[in-house]
Specification:
single chain, alpha/beta, OB fold (Dihydrolipoamide Acetyltransferase, E2P), Rossmann fold, eight-stranded mixed β-sheet, seven-stranded parallel β-sheet, about 20% strand, binds adenosine-5'-diphosphate, binds magnesium ion
Amino acid sequence: MPGADAEGRRLAQLAEIPVSVLDALKPKRAKALADFGVHSILDLLTTYPRRYIDRTRAADVADLAVGDEAVVFAEVKRVRSDRPRGRSRVEVKVADDSGEVSLVFFNQPWREEQLTAGSQLLVWGKLTEFRGRRQMTHPVVDLVARVESGATESRMLQVIPVYPASAKAGLTSWEIGTYVKEALSRSGRLVDPVPPEWRRRLRLQGRTEALEAIHEPETMSDPWPARDRLVFDELLRLQLILVLRRRATERSAGSIRHDVSVVELTPGAADGATLVSRFVAGLPFQLTGAQHDALAQIFTDMAGPLPMHRLLQGDVGSGKTVVAVGAMLAAVQGGHQATLMAPTEVLADQHVLGVRALVEDLWVPDPGRLGGRRPLSVGLLTNRVSARERTRMLAELASGQMDIVIGTHALLTEDVEFASLGVVVVDEQHRFGVEQRAGLRAKGRIVDAESGASVDPDLLVMTATPIPRTAAMVVFGDLDMTVVGELPPGRAPVTTRWARGPLEEEAAWERVRREVEAGHRAYVICPLVEESDRVAARSAVEEHRRLSGGALAGLEVGLLHGQMPTAEKQEVMDRFRDGLVQVLVATTVIEVGIDVPEATVMVVEDADRFGIAQLHQLRGRVGRSSMPSWCFLLGAATSEGGETRLSALERTTDGFELAEVDLELRGEGTVLGERQTGSSGLRLAKLRRDREWVERARRVAEAIVEADPELAGHPELAEEVRLLLDPQTAAFLFKS
Ligand code: ADP
Ligand code: MG
């Protein structure tokens, strides 16, 4: 392979060397590796074993009983293939000194060539009986030695790594292991980019040792410290990117220094006070300590010379909206504007209602008007807005007559211009990427005519339900974090019951009738339909009919779904709020933001179909007053995951705890979203298992960048980070 530097090879060099240099790789097989996503030596070395088999623990074939799961070490005697009912079937008879057993493979015709007579196999599987014959169907097979043109090739390992073999590409674990072995021995020593001091403090193995130990462990415990080291490398690269991104955004623009010095966050402020003071004074409640602290942090950011980049987390019902509105008003009181971007039209509608209600009586100075003031103006901009309305709004945004605009992606279109955008609130729900956040911020960028410096609006990102701390450090690691860790006082807890059968279900409907009789309101959430809004709407219509004639006969039952015209939706919501509609049968359009304090019961049908975060968010629609509330989850669980989800919801109403359960169940893929997993370079790291390493990597990344913002003194780290980035982003992050 091409030469190495004095201290060894760098990852970037290994990424340049194609697998075709390997002697063991026949040209035909390069295609299989490519299909498997392995092109370079680096790809190969970072294809890690999924597990290990301890050869010393192999059992005797004769000792196995039907139902046993075991590892046996055996030799191939005969291979037979046929096609019963058109399906390929390969039967491999293997034996050890004690007896024989058949291995059966369906739809894997390549097994016939792979498992030739005389080959020695390590087989891991479950013994079953079929027509009186002892067999294992689709066992994990590791070719330990194979007879090939007379010569025996043998890897007599104690511990055998099992690679993620690919049936599709016809790649076996053994084959991958062979290539990895050669790649490892020919790569020689690798450069270790982690400064020795950190390696010592974190007790990290060297990189070369770690790669060897993970691919060719001598004992079953060798891979663990190796894994830690390699996990740390992955996480460190990611955290360096996040910390560098943070610095680069700060460096690329200054920000409006909002005037928040005169803000008085106490109730009772009079006419002469600032907008924010009047807002707080006008609230029908006192801010919680957590809301107060969150606002104080936000105001400090907003007054500072760097653009704010803050994540606002809090449980459902903790009052994040009030905090977000406070931030927006802090911008407006200095003569700037604010915007709130939501992921869906329904959410944008809801936010407009909520925000308008909160700022109803507020005014801003306007010398052009009689009395020198005008009402604060809040607009809604989505794709549903008519062309005429849109033109009018765009004019008002450009002139500064509109103070706050709430909307969807429609806000990102080119013709939207602001007179002076001071703060951007993004209601995330994991749906916007870093790029979109950047896009919205760019809308508000002003270039100062005199100095030529750019000025960015402040950014506040909100999540609807909490996300675990480690996941936040990875997904939102370029943001500062504020947690609103307290619910408003006087909330009666929501009692959650998982109604698994008809009896419990009857109790749920009984509770609905009782609450409605007491003058309260109820939600019924229709089963989740994946296909489309249209199908969901149809099922809601049917459910509405069924319940009105059955379990809820005699009650005023309303219907709400995403396909209804806005005006109709508005009307049914108003009637529900006023109590003319007592039970609202709805799709998940009500998921977020709906706020009717008199609602004290929620029934979720087919609850098993919903995710934890969604159920928690839905449940947040009740329990919004001091009256006790109930949430009934209907239906049996169809999986172990469902069982865990529904029991967790029954057990706790703590969104942070539920977020951990969710991460545990679903893994990082879903938390990070597609946008992150692909490009994150996380192959070994698991957010659940590697919590501590995430935090350590964060600390190290911060310390390194703090002392060396351009990574000039860490050229190997800089190079490894660049490997994960497209050239444009790399240029942005490393621009001096
Ligand atoms: P979140 O968005 O965090 O789930 P909201 O902002 O929708 O929560 O607030 C939930 C409800 O609590 C709303 O009805 C809101 O008016 C009310 N609320 C917010 N802050 C307080 C407070 N400090 N005291 C009492 N009620 C509050
Ligand atoms: Mg909310």
